[in-house]
Specification:
Blueprint: E1 3-6, E2 28-32, E3 50-51, E4 57-60, E5 69-73
Antiparallel strand pairs: 1-4, 2-3, 2-5
Length: 77
């Protein structure tokens, strides 16, 4: 299973990306289980953080199936 997403500066604070709202690069993203430990990949290894690219996209590939929480760490606008 892959989990990915997009981080942008929500100027209108409505939770929807509008054309003028661009991606936010350099944001550290983590994926954790409900108890706060790192999620595991398909080989059973803990998944480390990743960083959004210049356009705001990120991806956690090859995850074990289950429930996880994606968290971000600065910079925040």
């Amino acid at each position: 299973m892959n989990v990915g997403g997009f981080v942008w500066f929500d100027q209108t604070a409505d939770g929807r990306q509008h054309l003028a709202e661009v991606g936010f690069g350099g944001v550290e993203m983590r994926i954790e289980t409900a108890d706060g430990t790192p999620a595991l990949d398909v080989d059973g290894n803990p998944v480390g953080p990743t960083t959004t690219d210049a356009t705001g996209h990120f991806l956690f590939p090859r995850l074990q199936a289950g429930t996880g929480v994606v968290r971000s760490e600065g910079p925040h606008g």
